[in-house]
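[User] I wish I could look at a protein chain and see how it folds. I have put the entry right below:
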Amino acid sequence: MNRNNKIIQTIRNGNGFIILGHVNPDGDSVGSMLALALYLKKEAGKRVFLPAPVEWPGRYRFLEKHRDGTGTPPTGDIDALIILDCSTPDRIDWGTLTPDDFDSIPRIVIDHHVEGFPFGDLNWINAGASAVGEMVYEMLTLLGAEITPPIAEALYSAIITDTGRFTFANTSARALEICSNLIRRGGIEPSVIAKQLYFNFSEEYFRNIGIALYNSRTYCDAKIVFLTLDNASVRSFSTSFEDTEGIVDLALNLRGVELAALFKEIDENVTNVSLRSRGNIDITPVAAEFGGGGHRNAAGCTLNMPLSLAQNTLLERLEKLLDKTKRKVDIDTV
């Protein structure tokens, strides 16, 4: 972090900031934005604006109470845009803002994705971090922040979700150490946060699970699992594609599975795909081929093609990836 003293200095010297995350925000995006905004507004006395998400994701609605005025546009000059968890500028969720109005404002980019490129005036990219929430914690520590219960709750939510409840391969000793510090210093209760995140399904989410599992298919001796939310079923059961985060993870419960995908038939020529893998199987190249991204074990992309073609296309890619991984293991064990 020493090489990023300019970021710390810019934050210390500035008075007005806009904090931005990515489209279709997850727990890391929402939690990191909130934690940084809370410190800047409550402790540092800065003017802070979170223009997004406009519609707060249902799973993270329990965190919205911490927004506390940061949804009101600040008066006066903006010293910097702080962009969190975005590997490319087209991933930014500008919410109520018009991007062209901020072309001349310096950009600070803080991210942990492997793909993409540093597009900010100041960049801190750490692909080894489990979550941007981990990076924000490190930054707040350098800034001398008090870890209040709201900040702790936001950062803990960021890290637990991006590590898949501490089950993904990106779960590191440092991530667990930070979460331990958040529990101790922030006085939060992990069981309460877990209940909000993982044991608080809406009826719509529950129906979507049923549709996805009913439409499940296995390939390569059940090493690959496809779950599907097709348009007809979604309409028939009066659900939507909005409340689906984490459904793909259910496929990893199947014994022996190594690769999983959840397909969402957005329309007849657009299919959204969430990808998961186990262990050292890196699925980011597959997602990147179709303009998506993510992490080694969790990624996503959108294919501009019908559902059946998208499934056949991804199956071909995943079979090749599985074969490549197996050959590498065979070579390593010789």
About this structure: DSSP finds ten helices and eleven strands in the chain. The chain has two domains: 2-198, 203-333. The CA atoms of residues 74 and 83 lie 17 Å apart.
